[in-house]
Amino acid sequence: MKIYLKIWRQNDAGTPGKMVDYTLDNVIPHMSFLEMMDTLNEQLILAGDRPVEFDHDCREGICGQCGMMINGRAHGPVAHLTTCQLHMREFKDGDTIYIEPFRGKGFPIKRDLRVDRSAFDRIIMAGGFIAVNTGQAPEANGIPISHEDAESAFDSAACIGCGACVATCKNSSAALFTSAKVAHLAKLPQGEIESRKRVLAMVQQMDEEQFGHCTNTEACEVECPQSISVLNIARMNWEYALSSVTK
Amino acid sequence: MDHNNTTSTLMRKTLMALTGLFLCFFLVIHLLGNLQLLLPTDQARESFNSYSQLLSGNIFIKIISYVLYASIIIHSLDALIITLKNKKTSGKYVYDQRGASSKWYSRSMGILGTIILIFLVFHFKDFWYQYKFGSLPVDGAGHKDLYTIVVGVYGDLWYVLFYVVCMFALGFHLLHGFFSAARSLGVYHPKYVAWIRVFGAWYSYVITIGFAVIPVYIYLTQHVLWN
Question: Which portions of this protein are annotated as coiled-coil regions (chain B) (predicted)?
């Protein structure tokens, strides 16, 4: 396959970037998207150019590191997929592919396709935990939790923090990410105790990190590799309203 | 913990939801009242004019009307603040296909809302202002003859078309707005979320068609068929 690439190149946060054209002649349909990027980088290194920087780690679709706008959509044209799980068979010979970093005020660009997603870490640090002393693991059945509650909490906890929700949101809202953690912990007895305090702290941090308002377009759920439900956002809104009234 | 949540993104959306839902409630009452215009001419005139008189004289209705004006203003200003802030935080792409993952009207609430606001200016000028400050004829029962004003206004085909287009803008605004309000207020149980989505869609269809039918009906019956 012959693939034409238009990739965002930017040296650092301070210098302006631009789209640069590349051509790859020997793309195999079975390659993952990141393997295609590796092939490009090998070509660039041999030519003495600086390779295109992008985040990646497990390449198994579970770590949330890789993330790019591919042809104008977060993680590419297939819904509910990470970039590493996207394969070149989704494209045709002779296609032009636009590759850009995830963008948003809360996600400043570091270089090329790499963005600073540490805002997510700070949102979690603001309240995405339960305050218990660590030590020996408690007896698993010490606190009875129904199967439905456990599954529901686990669905919320499945968020891998890739940032596709922010990237695809027209407002760059981090509501899906933040709400997934708020809902995950509010659904379990261990987390429920601090849920009032938690939601206020996490939402405040979310706002301070310059993420926009959620206007319920639900694009985030479509692009989310883990299919995190937008009902988590509803749960966060509910917890927030209760906390605001009762605090 | 020191946390000023009155200016948070979630609180702004809660305010949008509360004012929006009040406006949704008002639309139902407004539509029910306007359906009198579909009655036979003489009956419609008497019924509609006495209804208008009743509304304008009632202190309870007066209080509700001030809540209504406040809701329209707060809903618009809050939307303006949210939109301006979102413009600052949002990412811009060279090649953008993000529209594929959401409905166009859910992303166009600001434009749809602006159309509705422009419509409201005309709407207030033609009926509300006329009734309050204009010199209206009086009908047989001694009521101000708003019915004649309505029939007169809907004699202009362009105005009728403008009205119908605006009602469709309202319809799409409601199609997203009703369910979005419930979401912002935190309805998270899947059973009720599904119910609200269906109810919201039917609500939007009924309001849109209901309001759009009235000027078309008056134009056809009063200006085309019998003249």
Answer: none
CB contact under 8 A, B94 and A104: no
| B86 contacts A215? CB cut-off 8 A | yes
Determine the topology of domain A117-246 in CATH: Fumarate Reductase Iron-sulfur Protein; Chain B, domain 2 (1.10.1060)
CA angle A173, A221, A113 (to 5 degrees): 60
Subunit contact A200:B95, Cβ cutoff 8 A: no
Question: Domain residues of chain B, as ranges?
Answer: 7-87+105-225
According to the model, what pLDDT value does residue B2 have? 47
Give yes or no on whether A3-110 and A117-246 have one common fold: no
Q: Would the CB atoms of B89 and A172 count as touching at under 8 Å?
A: yes
Q: Tokens in use for B49?
A: 């004019």
Domain spanning B7-87+105-225 has what CATH number? 1.20.1300
pTM of the model: 0.93
For residue A152, give both structure tokens. 């529901």
Whole-complex ipTM: 0.91
The dotted CATH code for A3-110 is: 3.10.20.30
| All residues at 6 or more sequence positions from A139 whose CB lies less than 8 Å from its CB, including other chains | none
Site from B13, B97, B98 to mutate, A interface, most A CB atoms within 10 angstroms: B98
DSSP for A178-233, please give it: HHHHHHHHHTSHHHHTTHHHHHHHHHHHHHHTT--------HHHHH-TT---THHH
> For chain B, what percent of residues have pLDDT higher than 70?
96
Query: Residue ranges per domain, chain A?
Result: 3-110, 117-246
